Amino acid sequence: MSQGTLGNQMNITVGNLCDQSGINSVINGFLKLRKQVFIEKMDWELISQDQIEYEQYDMITTTYVIAHEQGEVVGGARLVRTDTILPTTFGRTHYSYMIRDAYLGLLSGLPKELCYDEPPRDPKIWELTRFVVTDGARVGAAILEKVNEYLKEQGADSCLFLGPPAFMRMSKSMGYQPKPMGKIVANESGRFLAFSCDVV
């Protein structure tokens, strides 16, 4: 687990459920925030249990980048390396990461047309999903900066993102050079775009 302080109040914590240094409560707060935003506010049809939103990509080794201040989680994101293979969860289906699984038609909620070409499997490429903030640009920028710092430490070359089109516009405004992986697609939950950014 690593932790940094931005300004006088906000902390950014990076880690996973394997860490033994108290991050579990922060991750739990992030999963609760996801339920509050994605299910209760945005009305996405996602699975929730015990006040948290949790799915197959939330493994014990999944990395989380979480912003919190004064004991309250105010934003976060989930990171998965693209060469990950998840344990079998439904029949013989083996999941890897969200963008690739959507392209392969394994996720009924996301259109297969998300990408023009088959997404990569590469230890130097990571995926960021479930990006959520309660305080717009300030928290979002802090999380993305910490993500870039962490991925650089891991020797990553690039990161794949999945989110609304505004997510790519925000990354551009921060000085990144995002490249769309496909066209904007839509489902009952809204409009989505997959794009990639080099680690800087």
TrEMBL record:
<dbReference type="Pfam" id="PF00765">
    <property type="entry name" value="Autoind_synth"/>
</dbReference>
<dbReference type="GO" id="GO:0016740">
    <property type="term" value="F:transferase activity"/>
</dbReference>
<dbReference type="GO" id="GO:0007165">
    <property type="term" value="P:signal transduction"/>
</dbReference>
<keyword id="KW-0949">S-adenosyl-L-methionine</keyword>
<dbReference type="InterPro" id="IPR001690">
    <property type="entry name" value="Autoind_synthase"/>
</dbReference>
<keyword id="KW-0071">Autoinducer synthesis</keyword>
<keyword id="KW-0673">Quorum sensing</keyword>
<comment type="similarity">
    <text>Belongs to the autoinducer synthase family.</text>
</comment>
<dbReference type="GO" id="GO:0009372">
    <property type="term" value="P:quorum sensing"/>
</dbReference>
<protein>
    <submittedName>
        <fullName>GNAT family N-acetyltransferase</fullName>
    </submittedName>
</protein>
<keyword id="KW-0808">Transferase</keyword>
<dbReference type="InterPro" id="IPR016181">
    <property type="entry name" value="Acyl_CoA_acyltransferase"/>
</dbReference>
